[in-house]
Amino acid sequence: MTYHDIGQGKDDLRLNNIIGRVLNRMLGKRAAQTFFDHLESTHSIQRQNIAHEMASFNSALKEYFGAGAGIIEQAINKNIEFVELETEASLTERTRMLKLV
């Protein structure tokens, strides 16, 4: 399945929404928005395109939050697992891409 397939688009939207919810919950809306602004201005990643730019997103997350990026990554992964339990759509491949090394 490619990014242009409808199913993949739904997964992208789910992943982007999960990331947004986790960052808002962990950082607060203002700090999360500051990070999203940083993504766009420094890394040319728009919020709605994070799923397409996971490697750059991971890099920006580590750059911006340092060791705290691992905690954010864990929270995102837990939320992805929860969504996978509730839906038949699989985000497993995207979860693997979220692993910060």
Would you give an account of this structure?
The protein has 5 helices and no strands. Helix 1 crosses helix 2 and helix 1 (6-27) packs across helix 4 (68-86). 74% of the residues lie in helices and 0% in strands. The protein has 101 residues and is an all-alpha fold. It is globular. It starts with 5 loop residues before the first helix and ends with a helix. The protein has helices at residues 6-27, 29-43, 54-65, 68-86, 92-98. It has one domain (6-98).
Fold topology:
Elements: H1 6-27, H2 29-43, H3 54-65, H4 68-86, H5 92-98
Poorly predicted ranges (pLDDT <50, ≥5 residues)?
1-7
Class derived from helix and strand content: mainly alpha
**Total count of domains:** 1
Question: What's the alpha carbon Rg, rounded to whole Å?
Answer: 13 Å
Number of strands: 0
Task: Tell me the strand percentage band.
Answer: under 5%
How confident overall, as mean pLDDT? Answer: 81
Instruction: Write down the overall geometry.
Output: globular
Question: How many helical elements?
Answer: 5
Along the chain, the helix and strand elements come as HHHHH
The biggest beta sheet is recorded as:
none
State the end-to-end distance.
26 Å
Please estimate the helix content. Answer: over 70%
